[in-house]
Each structure stands twice: as structure tokens, then as C-alpha cells.
Specification:
With about 650 residues, the protein is α+β, with helices and mostly antiparallel strands. Helix content is about 35%, strand content about 25%. It has 20 helices and 33 strands. The protein has an eight-stranded mixed beta sheet with strand order 16-20-21-28-25-24-22-23, sandwiched between helices. Strands 2-1-5-3-4 form a five-stranded mixed beta sheet, sandwiched between helices. Strands 6, 7, 8, 12 and 13 form a five-stranded antiparallel beta sheet that branches. Helix 3 crosses helix 4, helix 5 runs antiparallel to helix 6 and helix 8 packs across helix 16. The longest helix has 22 residues. It is globular. The mean pLDDT is about 95. The chain binds one RNA strand of 76 nucleotides through strand 12, strand 13, helix 8, helix 11 and helix 18.
RNA sequence: GCCAACAUAGCUCAGCUGGUAGAGCAGCUGAUUUGUAAUCAGCCGGUCGGGGGUUCGAGUCCCUCUGUUGGCUCCA
């Protein structure tokens, strides 16, 4: 007999060789129907594999991430089977489960596949799923495996097998389809009740752009049709929040073919909003001891040879600009740091000057591959809320703390509640890759980890993800519908101080090398605004939104009263406009709601006589009557609350 | 850059297998003077992304360029 410990800590005894499926059946028939896989100790396995010794066991269902993964991985096999039946002779790459569904990379040979083919593949998958095909695991020797795919003529699988050790190779067969696969899989295909293929895309074999591009088909499956429908609704919701759509509707920004792809044009409302963000950050930074600087948009090629960027990115950048007479070469600046290093070098520095914090909303230009461009999130010209802190190695910790304060403060003001952090450190097994002394790296890495610990930040460490010039800390936010975005960053840099020969005189009257910290709380204004739009679905925080109020006179008779109200509100620093159109109030309200203006003030005879406004809040409705001062206080209190340094 | 799809009025879209462009909204004009999510009527508006080809005839078929979208690769 063996002891099986279940998640509720209860222990059950069974004959050795029992399967998780049998145990599920022993617990309840209902559970058995829902079991997709099993977690045996810490490994996820097929629910049909026998257990021979004492283990901890969790039975995984659709409610478990690992259960979903098994289902989706099995769905990838099911799709492959359907495709193999419909398009004989295709060759298969890899087909894993992903966060939302699965994909399979397939070489269709000369046959071009498109989304038009999806319905027939989906139908075939459902048909096969109904056959309740089991996933049968089989251990095979390397030569058997090579023999099978050799006969099939699938060079991709052969390449994969060649990278595996003999003895660790398993095949899974379901219905007419056999695949090289580590598993685990669901017991049979019956839980796959709803299938949706999402998109086709090209994907390089093994992610290598020099190798053949396979056709990747993405899909997702569910145990209930209803869940698929809900998922599609969620996708619709994400679509409605798309910053490219809202950017156009709310007149925030646009693009022009004439100006060039990836070069955003900020419209008045968008520019005003962005300016407000910048002013806010500037104010916070001023309080925290930053100095604002301004540098030009181009820099001599020599600057980038010194910084090393020329050697690294020269060929993949925009081509240099040449002066007509001297033939001198200049590059559009791809980052601000080299310019800032030269500002540092303009004067000698004492240790007493440090830390020196140099901030600039610097617009930079980077050549991005055309296929990479996307709305405001990936562009060729953008403005970083950049700053460089020049400090001693001992000051790193304190400076990190200061930057984190700023980041928290602004995320808070913008209603990003769910913030997580990635700390990227050196690959401990590969220290030669990095510039800078071992001692300095250790000091910086320790400082970053300590800061995260002392502040109790939700941080995780990634080894080997540091830049070659220093460790970094990246800030991720989760938006209102649960998507993760990478925003701010803080990076330690030992490289540029070296390359630009930055020094300060220490208390020992000797020259020392400062450390540089790059930091950008928003990252780029463009990307940040995009994320903000999607996060708040265009309903910006009151302090930031282009128009805070719109005054809706009931008829032209009340136009002058509306103007009086607007002028009074201006005195309280409240931004607004009047909808003086010859339209019915219902229409004006509707239009104001669509423009997502936070407050609507309806004024007619009653209000004019009493010197009041009738307040309607966006998305909520009638709030009753306020006098002007009372309303101004309502607005200003709300703004103060949002901007309070919590 | 690569794979695939798409590109028709300012916006959202219709236009079957090729016969010479249509709706709603927006805009303009007029009527209406309006009380919490669309008042009515009329008018204006497109060399169907650019170029080339097939055809008696191309928005529709083919090639090519540009751009957009979804991925891949990349991201100082």
C-alpha cells in the first residue's frame, strides 16, 4: 500500500500502481469527469499514469492553471491531428500551450493557409474531440523516434529529437496523430467542447530569423461554449479600450503617411494632457532635488563612438546627417545619456556635489523595424522622461529609494494600483559578459535587493537579465482588465562613466569614478499615455483630463449665464467648455458622455435665477444642484485627493 | 525586415460571380428654443491607398510599391 497526501492534508491509502484518475473516481464521479491532469509532488503528469510510491497529489481541473495548460497543450495536438487529416503531408514544428490557449507551428509546404480555413479546421477538431480520443503515452528509443519521423519526412521533429537524450523521449498518440511530446495531456479529448482559432502568423523555426518561417496558428479551447463566449466578450472589451481607437475618438493624437510611420502627431487635447503629465513629474522631481537640462536632438558621430552606441547600433540606426561643407556626421539622438555625460564633464566635480540628478524630457529617435511599429506603444520618435543620477557607489541604495518614491507617487496619482517589480541581475555563471568590477556589481545588486526587501516590494529576481553595463529594476503595472505592461525602469550603469571618463574628487583628494543611474518613471510619454488610455478606457483622472467640465445651456437664452459660470470656474483653475449648439439637452448630454467629459453642468432658467448649476457626472448621472463655489470645491477636492502623496 | 490579412466620403462600413459608387454618423444650410444618452428637412462630400497590367470595360482579376492590423525576429 502507498500513502497519497491530498491538498487538504488528508492521507489515503491505495495499492501501488493506482492512477490519479482512479483516485478521483474513488472520491467522486463528478471530480473524475473534471480531472484534466495531476500534480504528483511538484510535477504535473498525466492523470492516467500509475503511482508507485508515497506522494503528494493534487487533481487538476479547469480551475487550475496547470489543468488549463494540459487542456490547451492537448488541444494543440487535436488541432495538429485535424490539420494533418485536412492537409496531408504538412510538417510540424512545436505546439505548446500559452497563457491564453495554444499554438502550433506548421510547415504547410506550398499550401497557403489563411483565416478562411479556420471554420473547417475548427469543425474537424470538434468532430475529433467528440470521438473521445485518448492520449496514449509511449516511451521510445531515440532510434525508434528518428525512424518514425524519418519515414514521415518531418525534418523539424528529427531536429528536435537529435537534441534529446536517448531514454527521455516519449510519444503521445491520439486518434490518427502521433507526436513527439513530453506531455502531460488530458485523459481524453471529451472536455474540449468549444474551439476557436484566433489568428495565423509567421514564426521563424526555433525563433531564428535566418531559418525557415513556419505558419503559426493560434487557438483556444474551453470545456463550455459559454466560457468561450465570455472570453470573446473580454477581447471585445480590450478592443474598445484600444488606445489607437480612443486616441482618434478623443482627438489626442494621429499619424500621417507624409510625416512617416511611427512618428506620432500630438493633437491639442493630447498635447495638453501630456504637458500636464510632464508638469506634474517636473514638479515632483524638483522637490526631490533634480536639475532640469535641455540638449539638442542630434549629436556628432564622435559622441556615439565614445559612448559605444555607434559600434553597437550604427548600422541599424537612422543614417547620419552630414553638414554640407565640412562633411561632419551627426546622428539623431537615440538616447539622452551621452549628452548628459558631456554636461557632467563641463565642470569638475567634488564628492560634495554628488548625487547630481539631471533630468530632461528628451525626445529620441530610434529605427524600429516597420513590422514592429504599433500605435503609441512602439514608435520611431518618442520622449523619455529621462534623468541620470551621477553618484558614488555608496549612494546607489538611497538614490534607488528616492526614485522608487517618485514612481510610486505618480503611479498612485494615475490609479495604477497593481505594481510589480522585476530585478534583473547578472548571470552568476557568466560574469565575464559584464563590464565593471565584481565589487561594484555586488554592491549595486545588494543595494537593489535590500531596497526591495526593506520596502516590502512585490519583486522577483531574474538572473542573467541585467544589461551588460549594470543591474536594473523594471516596474510592471496591471491595468483595469488585468493586462500587464512594463513601464518605468531604473538602471545602474558602470559603462558610460568609464567611456566618458567621468570623475569626481573624493575626500581623499583623489579622482574617483561616479556611477550613473538611468531612470524613467513613465518610460516614454508616448507609451505611457497609451497604457493610461487603455487602463482608464479614456476616462482620465480628473486632474489630467483635457476638459473637466462641459456646460450645457438648455437653450440659447442661457448662453450668457453659461459664460459667466465658465469664467467663474476658470478662477478656480477648472478647465471647461460650453456646448452652445442649437441642440436638445438630451443630445448634448449624449455627446458629452461619449467624449468622456467628467462633469456636465446643465444650466437653464432655474439655475440662472438661483446662481447654481445642475451637476451630472459622467457614467453616473444626476448629482443634484450646486452653487458655483460648492461645485468648484467638489472638483478641487477630488483633484487634491488624487494627487495627495499617499 | 519576415509571414498573413486588410486599404471604398472626415469616421464606421455596404458594393454577389468585372458593366462605370451607396448608407449611417460627422460637416454645412434652414426650421425648431429645447431639462438629464441622438429634433426634423435639405445640401455638400469619393480620379475606390499610389503605380503598372489583363479586358470592349476594373472598386471588383493579376503584378508592384506604400501604409495599417495580427504575429515572428528586434528593442541602447
Amino acid at each position: 500500500m502507498i500513502n497519497i497526501t491530498l491538498p487538504d492534508k488528508s492521507v489515503k491509502q491505495y495499492e501501488a500502481g493506482i492512477t490519479p484518475m482512479d483516485i478521483a473516481r474513488d472520491i467522486s464521479e463528478g471530480l473524475a469527469r473534471n480531472v484534466l491532469a495531476a500534480k504528483v509532488n511538484s510535477e504535473v503528469k498525466d492523470a492516467t499514469l500509475p503511482i508507485e510510491e508515497d506522494v503528494k497529489l493534487s487533481l487538476l481541473t479547469w480551475n487550475d492553471t496547470d489543468g488549463k495548460a494540459a487542456m490547451w497543450h492537448s488541444s494543440a495536438h487535436l488541432m495538429a491531428e485535424a490539420i494533418e487529416l485536412l492537409y496531408p503531408g504538412v510538417k510540424f514544428g512545436i505546439g505548446p500551450d500559452i497563457e491564453n490557449g495554444f499554438y502550433y507551428d506548421i510547415d504547410f509546404g506550398d499550401h497557403a493557409i489563411s483565416e478562411k480555413d479556420f471554420p473547417k479546421i475548427e469543425q474537424k477538431m470538434l468532430e475529433l474531440a467528440r470521438e473521445k480520443q485518448t492520449f496514449d503515452r509511449k516511451e521510445v528509443s531515440k532510434s525508434e523516434a528518428l525512424d518514425y519521423f524519418g519515414k514521415k519526412g518531418d525534418e523539424y521533429k528529427i531536429e528536435l529529437i537529435n537534441d534529446l537524450e536517448d531514454g527521455e523521449i516519449t510519444f503521445y498518440s491520439s486518434g490518427y496523430f502521433t507526436d513527439l511530446c513530453r506531455g502531460p495531456h488530458i485523459p481524453d479529448t471529451s472536455p474540449i467542447k468549444a474551439v476557436k482559432l484566433m489568428k495565423v502568423a509567421g514564426a521563424y523555426w526555433r525563433g531564428d530569423e535566418n531559418r525557415k518561417q513556419l505558419t503559426r496558428i493560434y487557438g483556444i479551447t474551453f470545456p463550455k461554449k459559454k466560457e468561450l463566449d465570455e472570453y470573446l466578450v473580454l477581447l471585445e472589451e480590450a478592443k474598445k479600450r484600444d488606445h489607437r481607437l480612443l486616441g482618434k475618438e478623443l482627438e489626442l493624437f494621429t499619424f500621417s503617411q507624409q510625416v512617416g510611420q511611427g512618428l506620432p502627431l500630438w493633437l491639442p487635447k493630447g498635447a495638453e494632457l501630456r504637458e500636464r503629465l510632464e508638469q506634474y513629474l517636473k514638479r515632483v522631481q524638483k522637490e526631490k532635488g533634480y536639475d532640469q537640462v535641455i540638449t539638442p536632438h542630434i549629436g556628432n558621430v564622435k559622441l556615439y563612438k565614445t559612448s559605444g552606441h555607434y559600434q553597437k547600433y550604427g548600422e541599424e540606426s537612422f543614417r547620419p546627417i552630414k553638414t554640407p561643407v565640412e562633411g561632419e556626421e551627426f546622428f539623431l539622438k537615440p538616447m539622452n545619456c551621452p549628452h548628459h555625460c558631456e554636461i557632467y564633464n563641463a565642470f569638475p566635480h567634488s564628492y560634495k556635489d554628488l548625487p547630481l540628478r539631471m533630468a530632461e524630457f528628451g525626445t529620441v529617435y530610434r529605427y524600429e523595424q516597420s513590422g514592429e511599429l504599433h500605435g503609441l506603444t512602439r514608435v520611431r520618435g518618442f520622449t523619455q522622461d529621462d534623468a541620470h543620477i551621477f553618484c558614488t557607489p555608496d549612494q546607489i541604495k538611497e538614490e534607488f529609494n528616492g526614485v522608487i518614491d517618485i514612481i510610486h507617487q505618480i503611479f498612485n496619482a494615475l490609479d495604477f494600483k497593481d505594481v510589480s517589480i522585476q530585478i534583473s541581475l547578472r548571470d552568476p555563471d557568466n560574469k565575464e559578459k559584464y563590464i565593471g568590477s565584481d565589487e561594484n556589481w555586488e554592491k549595486a545588486e545588494r543595494a537593489i535587493i535590500e531596497v526591495a526587501e526593506e520596502r516590502g516590494l512585490d519583486a522577483h529576481i531574474e538572473y542573467g537579465e541585467a544589461a551588460f553595463y549594470g543591474p536594473k529594476m523594471d516596474f510592471m503595472v496591471k491595468d483595469a482588465i488585468g493586462r500587464k505592461w512594463q513601464l518605468g525602469t531604473i538602471q545602474v550603469d558602470y559603462n558610460l562613466p568609464e567611456r566618458f571618463d567621468l570623475t569626481y574628487i573624493g575626500s581623499d583628494n583623489e579622482k574617483h569614478r561616479p556611477v550613473m543611474i538611468h531612470r524613467a518613471p513613465f518610460g516614454s510619454m508616448e507609451r505611457f499615455v497609451a497604457v493610461l488610455i487603455e487602463h482608464c478606457a479614456g476616462n482620465f483622472p480628473l486632474w489630467l483630463t483635457p476638459d473637466q467640465v462641459i456646460i450645457l445651456p438648455i437653450s440659447e437664452k442661457y448662453q450668457s449665464y453659461a459664460e459667466n459660470v465658465l469664467n467663474l470656474l476658470k478662477k478656480y483653475e477648472i478647465r471647461g467648455l460650453i456646448d452652445g449648439r442649437n441642440e436638445k439637452t438630451g443630445r448634448k448630454i449624449r455627446d458629452a458622455e461619449m467624449k468622456k467629459i467628467p462633469y456636465m453642468l446643465i444650466v437653464g432658467e432655474k439655475e440662472e435665477n438661483e446662481g447654481t448649476v445642475s451637476v451630472r457626472k459622467h457614467g453616473e448621472g444626476d448629482m443634484g444642484t450646486y452653487d458655483i463655489e460648492g461645485f468648484a470645491k467638489l472638483i478641487n477636492d477630488e483633484v487634491a485627493e488624487l494627487l495627495a502623496d499617499k
